[in-house]
Structure formats: C-alpha cells, structure tokens
Amino acid sequence: MKKSLISLSLITSMFIFSGCNGTSPSLVSITEPIKKLTQKEVKRNKELPIPSQLKNISSEASVSIEWDLDNKHMVEGYNIYRNDNTKESTKFSLVETIDNKFSTHYVDTKLKPEQQYSYIITSFDKNGESLNSKTLTTITKTRINPVSFLETINNLPNMIKVIWRPQVDSRVSGYIIEKLVDNEWKEQITINNNLTVEYFDTNLDNNETGKYRIISLSKEGQKSKPSKVVIGNTKPLPHIVENVNASFNFPKSIDLSWTNNREKDILKYKIYREGKLSSLFGKLGVETIAETTNNNIRLNFKEDGLESKFFITAIDKDGLESKMQSEAILGQTKPKPGSPYFTLKQIAENGINLNWNVGDERNVDFKILKTTKNNFIDSDLEEIKISGTSFTDTNLKKDSHVTYQIIGIDKDGIESIASEEVRFGIQ
C-alpha cells in the first residue's frame, strides 16, 4: 500500500468531521518492529505520550487519519498500524513510520472499496514505543457505479458510434471503452474526462458487428464493474445493381438500363466499361465512363458495330459503393449494313451503265464514289447519291481513267463499307 504525508493546512480544512474515536487503549499483536529500533522485540515506553482523538475521512480507495498528541517534545515520530479485517489479515501490521513529531496527519492509499480497516497509532523515541492509541475503525466508500445508460448508433459508414450518459458521481474522472475481440475484452481507449459521452470505433469493414462495454474510472484509479454490453453494426454496402440491360441497335450509341436499388439513400450510379488497360500485356480492366442519377443512360460512340461490356454500381450518400455484377453486360452500337455489289458494269454509246444489288435489305439509299484520273498524279473524287439500284454516267472525260464504288446507306444514315472497285478507260 502507498503511504503519504499531506499538508497540515489541507487536512485541517478537511477535518471538520466527527471521526470514529474507537475503543480504549490496549496492547495489540504487532507483526513488524518499528523502523527506528533494531531490537527483535518492540520496547514499550509507558512514559511516552499516546496519540489521541483519532479521526478520519474515507474515500473508495483511501483513508485520511488525523490525531493529536500532547508533549510532542518527548517523541521523535509515529508508527501507523493497520488491520485489514479479513480472514487473511487478523493482525495489525506496520504500514508507515513518520519521522516528524509535528505531523498529525496520514493518508493510506490504494485500498479496496467497501472494506473495513482498523488503525492504531503509537509514538516513539530512540528508546522505545508508546502504548497503542485507541483503535480507529472505518469503512472505505462504495465502488463507483458503471454508466447507467449506454447504446450504439448503427448504420454509419465504416464506423460504430457508442454513446452513454455521463456520471454524476464527482469521484468519476473518466471511462475505459472495451471491445470484444476474439472472445476477449480489450481496451480501446481511456477517456480522461467524465463529461465525454461518445466514442467512435473507426476503420471498420462494411456490415461489421462490434460488442462494447464501458468501465467508469475514479480519480483514485478505481474501476467500476463493467456496464451492460451493447452491439453495433456498420453500414452495409448498397445491393448489387440488378436487371441491367444493354442495347444492340442504336446508331453510334448504346443504351443501358437497370432497376433502381431498394436503398432509399442512393445518390448516383456509376458506369464502368471493360477494356484493355495495358496493350503490352493485354490485361483487361475497367474504366469509369459516366455517372447518372437515373436508372438509364445513353452512351455515344464514334464507331458502328462497336461491342462493349459494362458494369453498373450504386453509390449511396455516404460514398459507399456496391459491388459490380459478377459478369459484365454486353452491348453494341448498330452495325453497318452489308455492302451492295455491282451486277452490271458496261460502256455504252451514251456513257457507262452500272447496276447493283442492295446487298443488305437495310440499305435504302446509295452513294457512288467516282474517281477520275486525268494523269498519274491528278485525280478528282465525286460523290453521287442514288435512291435506286442503277446509274448511267454520261459525264466522262476523254483520255481518263474512271473508278466506281457503291456504298449502301440505311434509314439511320449508317453507311456500309464501299464495294469493290470497277474501272474503265475513256478514250
């Protein structure tokens, strides 16, 4: 047990109390000799004055004792003896020797709450020890109580908030927060302020469960019994976006649609496109290409017949993002129509006659690409739009070479690949 002296002025201000004056002086069994004497047995000096008017103040872990002594000039100091009044301790033991005859106070610390302790005090000089004082018996105060109200705030992103009602007991200095980890209660933090009422357990996984309890801590370092256990949960990720569909027949665009998530706090949806992140190693990856607050979106591309794979995720107001679908969703821009092909290509008196087959029933219009070369260097390109499947070219130049290709055009203006060339020499 720790022993200490406290100032006379402080204890004097404390001792406006009526302490326990105990029983009549008596000789008691002492387990240790006083420190000032070297003899194996304690010498009693009946001439020495006996400390009297013993009083005390108790807390849950300390006892402060005050005494009086006449004829202080006759002594050199005091011995403090304590009996813990337990089955294991039935005798008085020396707990402190005070080498100051003017001292009249002593604080015995690190005691147990709600336990009875008895004290006697003797004075001593170089020749021996006085008879025992009256026995002072006291009981330390009750242990501080655990917090009476405790709960968790759940559904927070990657954290659990623990709140409690602060202690009104002035002895309480703070709290110890404990968490059950691997079936063992482990301290998370010590809070050194009795008015603090919240704790955040952070950096947790999504949809993680935690069990917590609180121990109140007194100014003397005493701990209350643990509070009740409360359970908290972090917020789960939004559900995976379901019923995702992608289009295959829109010109230079792909429409994506899906079912709105069931969560009420979805802020937006993010669209990812699957593609190669590294041409060197040919690795597949995903890139973010769009975000929307709706449950559909049209993505525009420059290519016809472009196939792409997509993932859709949901993001809530706390920034938590759902997992992607297990498989990407395939979509495609509208493919080019098939190319028409020439069925007739001849020189007539009135010009060059060309006929062709549509090649693809989607072709509703056509475009002829006419290239005229006057020499090996100069050439002219002319585009001629035709609705039918035949064309006679009468605009020909002598001593030239003419090349023709035909392109099919569907109702959305998507052009096919140009057909094979047909060539003519004009003289």
Describe the structure in your own words.
The protein is built from one helix and 30 strands. The protein is mainly beta and 427 residues long. It has four domains: 3-139, Immunoglobulins (Immunoglobulin-like); 150-233, Immunoglobulin-like (Sandwich); 245-332, Sandwich (Immunoglobulin-like), CATH 2.60.40.10; 341-426, Immunoglobulins (Immunoglobulin-like). Strands 4, 5, 7, 8 and 9 form a five-stranded antiparallel β-sheet that branches. The N and C termini lie far apart (126 Å).
Count every beta strand, where a strand is a DSSP E run of 2 or more residues.
30
Through-space gap between termini: 126 Å
Largest sheet: 5 strands, antiparallel
How many domains, as an integer? 4
Low-confidence runs of at least 5 consecutive residues: 1-40, 278-282
What percent of the residues sit in helical stretches (DSSP H or I)?
under 10%
CATH third-level topology of the largest domain: Immunoglobulin-like
Structure classification = mainly beta
Which outline best applies?
A: rod-shaped
User: C-alpha Rg, in Å?
Assistant: 49 Å
Mean pLDDT: 87
Strand residue content: over 45%
CATH homologous superfamily caption of the largest domain: Immunoglobulins
What is the level 1 CATH name of the largest domain?
A: Mainly Beta
Task: Using the 3D structure, state the CATH architecture of the largest domain.
Answer: Sandwich
The number of helical runs is 1
